[in-house]
Amino acid sequence: MTEESMLNDSLREIVVGSVSGAIGKVIEYPFDTVKVRLQYSQTLPEPLFTSTWDCIAKTYHNEGVFKGFWKGLLSPMMGASMEVSSLFFSYKMAQDLINLYQGNKINTELPFGYRLACGCASGMVTSFILTPVELVKCQLQVDNLKSQKTARTPLGHVISQIRTQYGLRGFWKGQSSTLVREAGGTAAWFGCYEYTLECFRGDKGPDYNYKTHELLIAGAMAGVGYNASLFPADTVKNVLQTSEHHKSVSSAIKAVHSARGLRGFYSGLGITLVKTIPASAAMFYSYEHLKRMWN
């Protein structure tokens, strides 16, 4: 492979990943808002919601559709573009490095175990981009709950407030939890996607042209694998990023366990699995479709 074609591959992963990430985020965001609010609510002395449906009903009644469910979308949509492009780019780069080390051609398909390791490495790299984006997103999503108002808090104000209170390091609050979640979750994300595609491909060979429904199903399975694998780490991260009382991972873990026991670490899992099916399916389908158009 020439340097020009390697550069083209890298640029393709970044651009196509950015677009597909933004598409997925717009679809999943209202579900994510409900999940974050449920996780935040359970750490309060008196929880604000009794169930997922109670959270949806109160959010709609008090804040409406867009101010309630899509508040703070801009930051995570830009973040999702960076996140997904970073995931696909670093996943591809990790595979290229292994192939180069082993003396293979760049696009040689690696054994499944190697691809899982590449997914893990990709998640670890991307966690450093994702943490500050999710910090801002989570604070915007629970802002109305803290202040009991419906007026929108500007994105710039939230960013300025974090920097004033904690400095630049404050944007990486919850980094350790994010890293754990992304390392294991991304390995499961790519792993479930690749495994499902292999099942559809069977013995048809590496040039098999996947059907639309096969790509959608594989993308949906990837999302389920990602969210179901390390959901407690996501809960701890969101509690850390939305609560002013918890400054460490151990403090957040104790708060969640004291409030609801082990069940507390899975608060919001149901709606998360509901959101991830259409969002991840659309993300992977748009990624594969745009990649074909690029070529």
Automatic annotation (TrEMBL):
Coiled coil region boundaries: none
Membrane topology of the entry: Multi-pass membrane protein
Localisation per UniProt entry: Mitochondrion inner membrane
Solcar repeats: 8-97, 110-199, 210-293
Taxonomy, superkingdom: Eukaryota
Any one GO biological process: mitochondrial L-ornithine transmembrane transport
One Gene Ontology term, aspect cellular component: mitochondrial inner membrane
GO MF term set: L-ornithine transmembrane transporter activity
Primary localization: mitochondrion
Keywords: Membrane, Mitochondrion, Mitochondrion inner membrane, Repeat, Transmembrane, Transmembrane helix, Transport
Gene3D superfamilies given in the database record: Mitochondrial carrier domain
InterPro entries given in the database record: MCP, MCP_dom_sf, MCP_transmembrane, Mitochondrial_Carrier
One Pfam family in the UniProt entry: Mito_carr
Family membership: Belongs to the mitochondrial carrier (TC 2.A.29) family.
Name assigned to this protein: Uncharacterized protein
Phylogenetic lineage: Eukaryota, Fungi, Dikarya, Ascomycota, Saccharomycotina
